[in-house]
Amino acid sequence: MKADRGNNKQGKIFVISGPSGSGKTTLLARLIKDRKAGKLLKKSRSVTTRPKRSGEKEGKDYSFVNSQEFKCLLKEKKILEWTRYLGYYYGTPREPLEKQLLDGKSIGLCLDLNGARIIKKLYPARVVTIFIIPPSLHALKERIRGRCRGTDQKEVRERIFLARKELKSSGEFDYRILNQSLPEAIKELKNIFWKETAG
């Protein structure tokens, strides 16, 4: 896709961002599982160099590659945006995203702040940005510690530091959702999806 002409027959890119532990991945997964929304929306599968976690599947959760393979993808311009987080690379592959849009379907991405900015710049007429806000910083810390059991405490501190930084930039996004109650947050996300899809 060489230019973003805003053709209404194409799908939209829903970029969901928020601190680690805010629930962005869960919310996007629930939206895609919705019977009606799931027919129009697909999750972008990121490429990463981090090791596979328990229960994760190649090609479903991520495309797992080594550092050399990731750098080759960058060189060949097959990655739209990328970041290095806690020592590992993460990137959004170009081809699946653009194919989904040209097929008239939308695509959902969970990205950090910088990734959201890059995708918005690349596809200004196609992108809807949504920031997920945790109920409180204390609740966020507890979520991060809970999901990072057995993880180095330095990594936990880094995640919390990054979360503070991301929260300060939430005003840049088209929508903000407070994830205090998961059912309510899912309902709000669905409302945004249908509003933007109809438009």
- The residue ranges in which pLDDT falls below 50 over 5 or more consecutive positions are none
CATH level 1 class label = Alpha Beta
Spatial separation of the terminal alpha carbons: 21 Å
Task: Identify the overall geometry.
Answer: globular
Kindly describe this structure:
By secondary structure, this protein is α/β, with parallel strands linked by helices. The protein has a single domain, classed as P-loop containing nucleotide triphosphate hydrolases (Rossmann fold, 3-Layer(aba) Sandwich), CATH 3.40.50. It is 41% helix and 21% strand. It contains seven helices and nine strands; from the N terminus they run E-H-E-E-E-H-E-E-H-E-H-E-H-H-E-H. The protein has helices at 24-33, 67-75, 94-102, 113-122, 137-147, 153-167, 182-198; strands at residues 13-17, 41-43, 47-48, 63-64, 79-85, 88-93, 106-110, 127-133, 175-178. The strands form two sheets. Strands 2-7-1-8-9 form a five-stranded parallel sheet, with helices on both faces. Strands 4-3-6-5 form a four-stranded mixed sheet. Strand 5 and strand 6 form a beta hairpin. Helix 1 packs across helix 7 (182-198) and helix 5 (137-147) runs antiparallel to helix 6 (153-167). The protein is globular and about 50 Å long. The two termini are 21 Å apart.
